[in-house]
């Protein structure tokens, strides 16, 4: 395929015509007068959360750089509600022509069908464009906590029985807490909060013993001295935050859970458009600018082919069926 890339050529005709043109290797050729190059109009980047949120900031970063490359507007549209499901359903029903893309947290996307009873779409039918970044979850204790290591915490959680407790504020944290508790044979009690920030005071007062927080908000709070990080939840150390040991290193726990960012499109979006968008996004996130952007929130950039991204997506989706059982999460 021509190195001119997605924004140098291609055809925006009807889907079948587009597929035929692209499959013949025409993406890099100059566009005919009646077949304008992709993108020939605004591309809508859908976000399932409010302006200023982590997903919104990530989507706007990517949209701005895609716009620079193409010379066409990539417009971010916020459709918050139902933990991202409103946006997910909107994208699933959008026209599959390359002009609607979805940038979101992959963990939230695959967890959604197990958390809500009345979802009307099959998330696995979405086209996976590209992975963008991934990050561990942080296991934290209060700044004045007597637990200096994960081994210290584990010994105390066993000894305290049901007097031990921990805070959670999102599904992955609930799963991690349940796996850790099961792994060490603890009767620690889960205390659910609306947001991770809501339990910091309880953590530092000793009301709860530990918690799990996403790196996007957790790194800033850790750097500000609001709590202490004992370990991270991925199998390998993070390049963005290499000083923190994994739970495997610190305590021998076979835990490997992360949050991840990816881009999706409606089912049926022409494969050549998916392929070229993947190339564009992978090139963007491989820049020093993008590495610094993601590193600031504890994320490592993560590039995969559309096929590799889809394989991981389906694997994570399958895993969540078991996770909700472990955590005892009842669909709402």
Helix content: 40-55%
CATH topology (fold) name of the largest domain = D-Maltodextrin-Binding Protein, domain 2
Q: Which whole number gives the mean pLDDT?
A: 89
Strand percentage: 15-25%
Q: How do the helices and strands follow one another from N- to C-terminus?
A: HEHEHEHEHEHEHEHEHEHHEH
Largest β-sheet summary: 10 strands, mixed
CATH class of the largest domain: Alpha Beta
Tally of DSSP helical segments:
12
Globally, the shape reads globular
The termini sit apart by 47 Å
What would CATH call the homologous superfamily of the largest domain?
Bordetella uptake gene, domain 1
* Secondary structure tally: strands: 10
Structural class: alpha/beta
- CATH architectural group of the largest domain: 3-Layer(aba) Sandwich
Low-pLDDT runs = 1-33
Count of the domains = 2
- What does the radius of gyration come to? 22 Å
Outline the structure in words.
The structure is a single chain. The chain folds into two domains: 15-134 and 260-327, Bordetella uptake gene, domain 1 (D-Maltodextrin-Binding Protein, domain 2); 136-251, D-Maltodextrin-Binding Protein, domain 2 (3-Layer(aba) Sandwich). Helices cover 41% and strands 18% of the residues. The protein has twelve helices and ten strands. It has helices at residues 15-23, 54-70, 85-93, 106-115, 150-160, 171-184, 200-205, 215-223, 247-251, 271-285, 288-295, 306-327; strands spanning 43-47, 74-78, 100-105, 127-141, 165-168, 189-192, 210-214, 228-232, 258-265, 300-301. Strands 1, 2, 3, 4, 5, 6, 7, 8, 9 and 10 form a ten-stranded mixed beta sheet that branches. Helix 2 (54-70) packs across helix 10, helix 4 (106-115) crosses helix 12 (306-327) and helix 6 crosses helix 12.
